[in-house]
């Protein structure tokens, strides 16, 4: 964990996920009567993965667990605690092109119209929703924004992403105006007498938790009457797929999302193709 934190610059959420995965693995080995991870054989790792699958873990979660194990054994090899990794010939689980959850532009507009502007909280919520859709930020990135994160002169956000990597993301005019109004009219009322530079404040004048933001977004999706599962990451997925559907360059979307590998961004091109097939099937006379 110290190696991941100090030398790899892993984010807090990544560390916690890896810690859970590795603890689960060690517990599994103990049940098999193995004293430590260095005693594990390839068949033990495969048995562990089979158990994860039987517990209903998704391919993505299994991949993350496998990545945690791969990194752990790589560390042990570097430290010369092992001569060979039991994961040397085990591939990542196949993710059968699981498409991310998105909403249509019409559904997104419906969600964005829900908060209104009648109270300080409503103005804040409008600003949050508009900014999420305008920038594709992760929840952890949004709740970490400060008053200095926005360049008001040119309309850009400076975001600290995964692995403490900084990126610059443009903010559209609608979101910019909404956040500006929140800062001018609502934030001072929510801040009360507290001294803080956090951009978005809850009713206690403090930064949001991930769970607190989740509840707000799920609440407005239900209020909009949407039956599908809408969560904070839905805004990120929709941001990317709507940009690509409108003709945006894949590389530009990769930069705005903060993806290290463009293959991660490419899944959104499949969302766009899926939508094209749907339109073709619906409107073509012999579809």
Secondary-structure-based class equals: mainly alpha
Number of helices: 13
Stretches where pLDDT is under 50 for at least 5 consecutive residues are: none
Mean pLDDT: 86
- Strand tally is 3
Summarize the main sheet.
3 strands, antiparallel
Description:
With 287 residues, the protein is mainly alpha-helical. The chain folds into 2 domains: 77 residues, DNA polymerase, domain 1 (Orthogonal Bundle); 178 residues, hpI Integrase, Chain A, CATH 1.10.443. 57% of the residues lie in helices and 4% in strands. It is built from 13 helices and 3 strands; from the N terminus they run αααααααβββαααααα. Strand 2 and strand 3 form a beta hairpin. The longest helix has 20 residues.
List keywords for this structure.
hpI Integrase, Chain A; globular; single chain; 287 residues; 57% helix; DNA polymerase, domain 1
Short account of what is shown:
The chain has 287 residues and is mainly alpha-helical. The protein has 13 helices and three strands, in the order αααααααβββαααααα.
What secondary-structure arrangement, pairings included, does this model have?
Elements lengths: L1 H6 L4 H20 L10 H13 L4 H20 L26 H8 L7 H16 L3 H5 L6 E2 L4 E5 L5 E5 L2 H19 L18 H14 L8 H14 L4 H8 L4 H4 L1 H17 L4
Antiparallel strand pairs: 1-2, 2-3
Helix pairs in contact: 2-4, 6-8, 6-10, 10-13
């Amino acid at each position: 964990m110290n190696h991941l934190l100090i030398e790899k610059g892993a984010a807090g959420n990544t560390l916690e996920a890896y810690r859970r995965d590795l603890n689960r693995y060690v517990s599994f080995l103990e049940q098999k009567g193995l004293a430590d991870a260095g005693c594990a054989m390839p068949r033990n790792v495969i048995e562990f993965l089979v158990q994860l699958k039987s517990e209903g873990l998704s391919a993505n979660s299994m991949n993350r667990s496998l990545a945690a194990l791969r990194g752990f054994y790589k560390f042990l090899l570097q430290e010369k605690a092992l001569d060979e990794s039991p994961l040397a010939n085990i591939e990542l689980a196949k993710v059968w092109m699981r498409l991310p959850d998105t909403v249509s532009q019409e559904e997104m507009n419906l969600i964005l119209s829900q908060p209104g502007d009648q109270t300080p909280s409503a103005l804040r919520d409008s600003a949050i929703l508009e900014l999420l859709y305008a920038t594709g930020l992760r929840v952890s990135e949004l709740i970490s924004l400060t008053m200095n994160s926005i360049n008001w002169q040119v309309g850009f956000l400076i975001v600290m992403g995964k692995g403490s990597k900084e990126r610059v993301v443009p903010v559209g005019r609608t979101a910019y105006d909404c956040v500006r109004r929140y800062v001018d009219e609502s934030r001072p009322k929510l801040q009360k007498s507290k001294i803080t530079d956090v951009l978005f404040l809850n009713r206690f004048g403090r930064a949001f938790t991930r769970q607190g933001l989740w509840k707000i977004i799920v609440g407005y999706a239900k209020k909009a009457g949407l039956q599908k599962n809408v969560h904070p990451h839905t805004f990120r997925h929709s941001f990317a797929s709507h940009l690509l559907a409108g003709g945006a360059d894949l590389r530009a979307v990769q930069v705005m999302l903060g993806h290290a590998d463009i293959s991660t961004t490419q899944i959104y091109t499949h969302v766009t193709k899926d939508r094209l097939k749907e339109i073709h099937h619906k409107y073509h006379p012999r579809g």
